[in-house]
Write a structure and sequence with these properties.
heterotrimer, A alpha/beta, B alpha/beta, C alpha/beta, A: globular, C: alpha/beta, Ubiquitin-like (UB roll), FAD/NAD(P)-binding domain, five-stranded mixed beta sheet, five-stranded parallel beta sheet, 28 helices, 20% strand
Chain lengths: 160, 235, 1123
């Protein structure tokens, strides 16, 4: 069956995001389910971000920061690891597989590692299947239309 | 400061699963400081709670969040009054005082606690809080170099340490510092060891909880017709 | 369908229509539209032949359909094409099966067919071999290379590719183009030419494997521009080919570029030409260049690199297998009198250790052995790293290897060595790594006359110990290995130091050649509703060939707040930038999304574009649809396009709540506070003052000079340290820009980079307050008096520094043939003090040489564990041995035994090379005592909130890249407070600090990044969480009992914001609504990207109910509003 799950990747600017770029320049192939969102440092990642991502229906969240001891901001990645552990605990409490979220560490020079962890995460989430919290994707279109009307109203108001 | 920690999500979910519209109310003072009931934590619980409800097929439940300045004062609670009517139930993320304040103010709204209120204490290091005061109603810290054997000694001994004190730790648990060791160390430092030679008298517990719920009344502060009638003083 | 423009044709491929110039092939048109059509014999830039038929498509002709090869069919009017119809797929399957039968041995073809879903052929094999007779090779040889060396001969099953008469031909220029273009791996060049085909190897992967003629110097080259190797390029040799020019869609190839000579007038020159690796052919007995499985350490590093030619897999070149055992041989060309390289290359011991650890990390079963002479782990934390390697199972064998013998069959390598029992052992290894010496470039030797600088006997720039940055020519400075072999931190330090020396010289003309750009005034967009412009980039074919860019634009155009969406071939091109500026103004855009490559390289460019168009630069966000989409999902264009659409929509959610950020700046107090008046402190003070900045120098002792004043007499090259220290002290005292406090301490430092305020307290407790922009810690280190070896119990047992003092005062009074025993590594490199004091070996050699000079008949015996006379100090070690100083090694577990009875000292030890006990009765024993940090280091550490390492030395921001900075901005470090070091190194480091400091002090105002934390005072409850979390001590609770972030100290990591329990802190450019906006719109969970609300609502009363965002969806309340 086609793996149409969505994995949100929260990547720190200095290491993981750079490694993702390097995977690109090396033309390494990995599953297209990954959506990267850049963070200044994994230490900026609040539990809320990860939980709300699940609430909105992503199927998995991958948090990727610098190697331990190599955080550009000294210890942001260590804090992130603990927060992700906490999120796993909360997911377990509510009955969602804690494996849907994972923290990885890699250096900016590890393009292959980025491809590897992305593949690992996509495969893992593919096996777990879509999140039971996932919104019907058809809502997307309806949502956009609704919002378009709203935005139009705002822009219209401006014209007047 | 009052220290509390969060309840498990399934417990909260089961409290409110029969309601359709639920409001989570955070409190901006003690429980925010001890990272259990402030805006951020209520946001986390809110998110987890909504997911948890959806997973048991109650995804249509509305779970909204807000945080007020202080739950232990009507002035701040009043701001909520109009909106609370829109909800079938409220979970308070204040301490036990906050929950009851909300319950008394909103007699028609089922009220639930979001936290387990633990003790009066303070931050030991980032992420660690320790109990310091038992609220006994008759403070004797002056006798004990400013460190409380009621709140901090496992046996509440007034003439310590006991035989279970070893290497500055308590026999109950190595994570507990022996407060009597600390009292003696501090007395030595202050040159007041002789004060500890005197036998400490037993505590008069009548001011503690044995006499039922307590009240503090300041006659001079009472506004006519609003204070209690009696000359009870402290009960 | 709209009528085509003149000279344009309208083509519809799979239902999507586009306009292309008349004559465009169907294939090119489809690829521009992001529709992939597989090809085998198509090669971009070459005239298509339509030979393989893999690219078949259907075109509509009247009412019927016809099959054509898309690569060669030109579009000349209106055309409707079907690339994925059942008929096409069926025809392609048959074509592929036929091709498989044609070339049954081609692995490449099998993989190609399998990707298209054809796993096997139902036809029986027509012939053997790998050739499908597509003729691409003959076309490239004839049409592109103009050679005609090969052609298709014969008919039917006899048809083959071969030179005329099936003989090798001189027509073949062995360019390898045929081999390169062949899609099925069928070409064997040796059939075409008798000339040996030599792989073109380049420095890109350290000459390991075959590389193209046109490429970048290395993966991280700056600028990232490829160059053509003219020596080997067919175009430059024969005028033919020119394929790269045709292929490059950006038109960047320019064959006419010539080397240019520029004349510059400069006030100072810094020489940093680096080094090259030792030419291993001078030591051919080690087999580099002859044995496939012998590689240099640089090549091995390249094999280990994740971005290297083997993606980090170590493999043998002889058979491509992973080795099971690797041996490192150290000192190839270093410490080698035979090649005239008497010096030590300083870096190889640690480099080999690092490579060994990485190789073991990669393959824990790999056996790694390092054959070495002395383990020179002399730098900060090096011994710990050495220990870690041993714990990880790296085997260290102290033995000199004299040759490498390649086993003829296995291509394994046999080494012969002596083991710890002095027994001869022969052992085979799968791979051998040679640690090649660092040597100066020979071309520099030729140019040294032109440069006018003296070189030393080995071709390095000649400097003196007390002035390590200046060459023999005034105004010409030197940095890095060109001065002496050194590692990265030392190189960074020395080069920063050279920059400072140049700045001192040029202080009077600073800034006189700087031109500044004046952007137009910034438009105030705070009250405007979001108007988003989306620019989607094709990046030539980098994005466009995979992602359907037009579809991305189409899907984005109707999203909320988007008023403009368009696509560009190269969004970063100058003309597109101008278009963007026009669009921003014309459409009154106030948020911009650029969907292209990575913000890491292009964000700055587009921010400038916004700024030039009068927009705040922070109203931009980039979406990476190249590095993180088209490049990594090229096999799945459909999914890649969907992902690109999702990513742009996600970015929209983030972009709508963006707010303009005004970059602030803080005024800079252009003076420096230096703590410590030793050699490092004084050198830093003088250099900074010479650069033109005021200096406050605080020394706790009553006089300047520090540790050096008390102990050191001369350097290895004979310079007089005492005279030097006195001279420094005089200059410091007399310098008009230096204010000196001796007998004083700094008791308080507040503020941040650019604006510190400190209290200096003198001995009489009077105190003064000073303001300054930076702080330099130069508190030094001291010799720790030993407690072992009867030190203190006999006046015949002294330390090296005490010996220095005695030598300086000339009161040794030893009998002419007395014996002196020096014991190295006393109370260091052990469990308690697991570090090396770096200077003791050099000091011992220096003192031994001076003793021998004064009294040639003295017997000097040095008992050592590893002689760490790195760099040019190795030559002095050599000299000492020649002069008869005895060096006897001992093991850590078997230290010498010293006993004192009456007036006699007896030292007993085991000589490891003789394998027997020795006893000496020396007249004097000299101990190499450890160097330790000052007693007040903790106090300084607390004062500045800077860390100490486990050994009690201050810890820099980054060991390699920021060796003199602390992690908090504006705080710097030099001298022995950083780690034990020689005077020349302390001077370099002090100058390095002066260089780094000038980058701050030379500014009147220091810009602060806009990405900093801000506190909403209405929400702050002063819980102290941010204060505890911030690694830079930026937040503090201020006068109003609310957290305040010092803008200049904030690094923008967001630790405080993510920890704040009241969510009172936001990180600019990464606010909660921006991040949740992105997450929400990725899945489009129902809420619109929220338009930005007021940043700080005014405080209006006591009751502040903060409705969290969710609760707003139903109601009509406003975010953050007060009820």
């Amino acid at each position: 069956m086609k793996n149409d799950t969505i994995v949100l990747a929260l990547c720190c600017h200095y290491c993981a995001y750079a490694a993702a770029d390097m995977a690109g320049s090396m033309r390494l192939q990995y599953p297209p389910n990954i959506r990267v969102l850049r963070m200044p440092c994994t230490g900026k990642i609040e539990e809320n971000y990860v939980l709300s991502a699940f609430e909105y229906g992503v199927d998995g969240v991958m948090v990727a920061g610098c190697l331990e001891g190599g955080c550009h901001y000294l210890e942001g990645n260590l804090r992130a690891r603990k927060r992700i552990e906490r999120v796993k605990g909360i997911l377990e409490e509510i009955g969602l597989e804690p494996e849907r979220v994972e923290m990885f560490n890699l250096s900016s020079a590890e393009g292959p590692r980025f491809a590897e962890i992305s593949t690992e995460m996509c495969e893992r989430i593919g096996k777990l299947g879509p999140s039971p919290l996932r919104a019907d994707r058809s809502r997307l279109k309806a949502g956009i239309e609704e919002l378009q009307a709203e935005a139009d109203a705002v822009l219209e108001g401006e014209k007047r | 400061m009052i220290v509390a920690d969060r309840k498990q999500i399934p417990e909260l979910r089961d409290m409110i699963k029969d309601f359709d519209r639920v409001l989570l109310v955070g409190c901006g003072t003690c429980v925010t400081v001890c990272l259990s009931g402030g805006e951020r934590e209520v946001g986390i619980i809110g998110s987890a709670l909504r997911m948890s409800l959806k997973l048991i097929g109650r995804g249509d439940t509305v779970v909204d969040e807000c945080t007020i300045e202080r739950q232990c004062d009507d002035a701040f609670i009043d701001a909520l009054a109009e909106r609370v009517q829109e909800y079938d139930a409220v979970i308070s993320f204040g301490c036990g005082v906050g929950v009851q304040a909300l319950a008394e103010r909103f007699p028609k709204t089922p009220m639930f606690p979001g936290l387990n209120t633990q003790f009066m204490g303070l931050l030991e290091s980032q992420g660690v809080w320790a109990e310091k005061c038992a609220g006994c109603g008759r403070c004797r810290l002056g006798e004990f170099m400013g460190l409380c054997p009621i709140a901090r000694c496992s046996k509440q001994i007034f003439n310590g340490p006991c035989g279970g004190s070893h290497d500055g730790k308590c026999e109950v648990n190595d994570d507990i510092n022996c407060v009597w060791q600390e009292i003696i160390d501090r007395a030595r430092e202050l040159g007041m060891l002789d004060k500890l030679e005197e036998l400490a008298q037993p505590q008069d517990w009548s001011t503690y909880r044995d006499g039922g719920p307590r009240k503090v009344v300041r006659e001079d502060q009472c506004i006519a017709g609003m204070g209690p009638d009696a000359e009870e003083g402290v009960q | 369908m709209a009528a085509p423009l003149p000279n344009m044709a309208a083509v519809t491929v799979d239902g999507r229509t586009s306009q292309v110039p008349i004559g465009t092939t169907i294939l090119d048109a489809a690829r521009q539209m992001g529709i992939a059509i597989p090809t085998l014999c198509h090669y971009r830039g070459m005239t298509p032949a339509g030979a393989c038929r893999v690219c078949l498509v259907e075109i509509e002709v009247g009412d019927s359909r016809r099959m054509v090869s898309s690569c060669s069919y030109p579009i000349d009017g209106t055309l409707v094409v079907h690339s994925g119809s059942d008929a096409v797929l069926e025809a392609r399957r048959t074509v592929l099966e036929l091709l498989l039968a044609q070339a049954p041995d081609s692995q490449e073809l099998k993989e190609f067919a399998a990707e298209l879903g054809v796993e096997s052929t139902s036809f029986s094999a027509a012939r053997e071999g790998r050739c499908v007779l597509c003729g691409l090779c003959t076309r490239v040889c004839n049409d592109v290379m103009g050679r005609g060396a090969i052609n298709l001969y014969g008919r039917s099953s006899e048809r083959t590719v071969e030179p005329a008469y099936d003989e090798t031909t001189v027509q073949c220029q062995v360019c390898g183009a045929c081999e390169h273009v062949c899609p099925t791996g069928a070409i064997d060049l040796s059939r075409f030419s008798s000339e040996l085909s030599v792989a073109h190897r380049t420095g890109y992967d350290k000459y390991l494997f075959k590389r193209p003629n046109i490429e970048m110097a290395h993966a991280q080259a700056a600028p990232r521009v490829p160059t053509i190797d003219r020596e080997n390029c067919v175009y430059f040799k024969t005028g033919e080919c020119g394929l790269c020019e045709k292929v490059c869609q950006a038109g960047a190839i320019n064959y006419d570029q010539e080397e240019e000579t520029l004349d510059l007038e400069v006030g100072a020159v810094v020489l940093t030409p680096g080094f090259i690796a030792f030419d291993a052919t001078k030591r051919s007995e080690f087999g580099l260049g002859f044995c496939d499985n012998v590689v240099s350490n640089v090549q091995f590093e390249s094999l280990l690199s994740a971005s290297g030619p083997t993606a980090g897999h170590v493999l043998r070149r002889s058979d491509g297998n992973a080795p099971k055992s690797v041996a490192f041989i150290q000192c190839i060309g270093s410490r080698d009198v035979g090649c005239g390289n008497e010096y030590c290359s300083s870096v190889c011991c640690m480099a080999a250790t690092k490579e060994a650890i990485i190789a073991k990390d990669h393959d824990p079963n790999l056996d790694v052995t390092i054959f070495f002479l002395d383990m020179r782990a002399f730098g900060k934390d090096f011994d710990r790293y050495y220990q870690r390697a041993q714990d990880a199972g790296v085997r260290y064998v102290r033995s000199f290897i004299s040759r490498v013998f390649e086993m003829p069959d296995s291509k394994n390598l046999q080494l012969t060595y002596l083991d710890s029992k002095m027994k001869r052992v022969e052992e085979e290894f799968d791979m051998v790594v040679l640690s090649l010496a660092l040597v100066p470039s020979p071309t520099l030797r030729e140019k040294s006359e032109m440069l006018g600088v003296d070189l030393n006997q080995w071709g390095f720039a000649q400097t003196i110990d007390l002035n390590p940055l200046d060459t023999s020519r005034p105004g010409v400075f030197v940095g890095g290995v060109f001065q002496e072999p050194k590692d990265i931190p030392d190189t960074v330090m020395q080069s920063s130091g050279s920059a400072a020396r140049a700045m001192s010289l040029l202080a009077s003309v600073r800034g006189s050649k700087v031109r500044t750009k004046a952007p137009p005034p910034e438009r105030d967009v705070t009250d405007e509703p979001p108007r988003v412009g989306v620019f989607v980039c094709h990046c030539g074919s980098n994005i466009g060939s995979v992602v359907d860019v037009a579809a991305v634009v189409e899907q984005t155009r109707d999203l909320p707040y988007v008023v403009l969406a368009e696509h560009n071939t190269y969004t970063c091109a100058d003309d597109t930038q101008d278009v963007m500026k026009d669009r921003i103004i014309e459409h009154r855009l106030n948020r911009v999304i650029v969907a292209s490559c990575t913000p890491r390289t292009h964000e700055a460019i587009f921010r400038d574009t916004l700024r030039d168009a009068g927009l705040n630069p922070y109203l931009l966000e980039m979406t990476n649809i190249r590095d993180q989409c088209s490049w990594v999902h090229s096999a799945d264009p459909e999914e890649a396009t969907q992902k690109a659409i999702d990513l742009v929509r996600m970015t929209l959610g983030r972009v709508v709540p963006l707010r303009p950020i005004r970059e602030q700046s803080v005024p800079v107090k252009n003076s420096a506070l230096i703590i410590g008046g030793g050699i490092a402190g004084m050198t830093a003070a003088l250099t900074i003052a010479d650069e033109g900045f005021p200096v406050y120098l605080v020394e706790k002792e009553s006089a300047l000079g520090g540790t050096a004043k008390k102990v050191v007499v001369g350097t290895l090259d004979g310079s007089d340290v005492q005279a030097f220290v006195s001279r420094l002290a005089e200059r410091v005292s007399a310098h008009p820009r230096i204010v000196l406090w001796t007998g004083s301490r700094v008791t308080e430092i507040n503020g941040h980079v650019g604006a510190f305020e400190s209290t200096i307290e003198s001995l009489d407790s009077s105190s003064v307050s000073v303001e300054h922009g930076v702080v330099v810690v130069a508190t030094g280190a001291v010799e720790q008096k030993p407690t072992s070896f009867e030190y203190g119990n006999s006046d015949k047992v002294i330390t090296q520094s005490e010996l220095c003092e005695k030598l300086a005062r000339d009161d040794l009074r030893l009998p002419s043939s007395a014996t002196i025993v020096m014991i190295q590594c006393v109370e260091q490199r052990d469990e308690e003090r697991p570090y090396c004091s770096r200077i003791c070996c050099t000091t011992a050699v220096r003192n031994a040489l001076q003793l021998k000079e004064q009294q040639p008949d003295l017997n000097v015996v040095v008992l050592y564990r590893d002689m760490r006379t790195y760099g040019f100090r190795e030559a002095a070690y050599q000299e000492a041995r020649e002069k008869g100083v005895l060096f006897v090694r001992f093991e850590k577990d078997e230290p010498p035994q010293l006993t004192v009875t009456d007036d006699t000292i007896s030292v007993r030890m085991r000589d490891l090379s003789l394998q027997r006990e020795l006893t000496v009765n020396p007249e004097l024993v000299v101990l190499a005592a450890p160097i330790v940090g000052q007693d007040d280091r903790q106090e300084i550490s607390d004062l500045l909130k800077v860390p100490l390492n486990g050994d009690g030395f201050f810890l820099e921001a980054h060991v390699k890249l920021r060796p003199v900075d602390f992690s908090s901005d504006g705080l710097f470090l030099c001298g022995a407070a950083h780690s034990p070091k020689l005077i020349s190194e302390a001077i370099s480091q002090a100058c390095a600090v002066a260089g780094r400091v000038a980058s701050i002090l030379s500014k009147k105002e220091m810009p602060i990044s806009g990405q900093i934390a801000q506190v909403d005072v209405n929400k702050c409850i002063a819980c102290m969480t941010c204060v505890h979390l911030c690694p830079y001590h930026a937040p503090a609770v201020g006068k109003d009992n609310k957290a305040e972030v010092q803008n200049a100290a904030c690094m923008g990591c967001g630790s405080c914001a993510s920890g704040c329990p009241a969510r009172a802190i936001t990180l600019n450019n990464y606010t909660n609504d921006q991040i949740s906006g992105a997450i929400e719109s990725l899945l489009w969970a129902g809420s619109p990207p929220s338009s930005p609300g007021p940043i700080y609502p005014e405080k209006t009363g006591i009751s502040q109910t903060r409705w969290h965002k969710r609760a707003l969806e139903g109601g009509d309340q406003e975010a953050d509003s007060d009820q």
